[in-house]
Specification:
mainly alpha, 2 helices
Length: 100
């Protein structure tokens, strides 16, 4: 088995020259090797992202946070308006008055 770098593991099957493996076995091992390399790359990228936050993403999330705060405020105001409107409708009915 020849030594391969991580970049050419996706291009060259390092197990195809092994005479003790069938073609199917070498293909399966190659798929496992590619999967392992993908996991290593994913782990490296995850560690890189966890060490320092992406400033563009943080800025976009802050804008989203402000917008969500505005939506929450508007929602609360709408609910408050509906509750007040219901109380106004119920109040005259308690005294036997009808609303035209």
């Amino acid at each position: 088995m020849s030594a391969t770098t991580s970049s050419d593991i996706f291009d060259v099957n390092p197990y195809e020259s092994n005479t003790s493996l069938s073609v199917l076995e070498s293909e399966v091992l190659w798929e496992y090797a590619k999967l392992a390399q993908h996991i290593k790359l994913l782990t490296a990228k995850t560690e890189e992202l966890s060490e320092q936050p992406d400033e563009k993403l943080v800025a976009r999330l802050r804008v989203l946070e402000r917008k969500m705060g505005l939506v929450l405020t508007l929602f609360k105001a709408s609910v408050w308006g509906v509750i007040n409107e219901q109380e106004t409708v119920k109040a005259p009915e308690q005294y036997g008055e009808s609303i035209i």
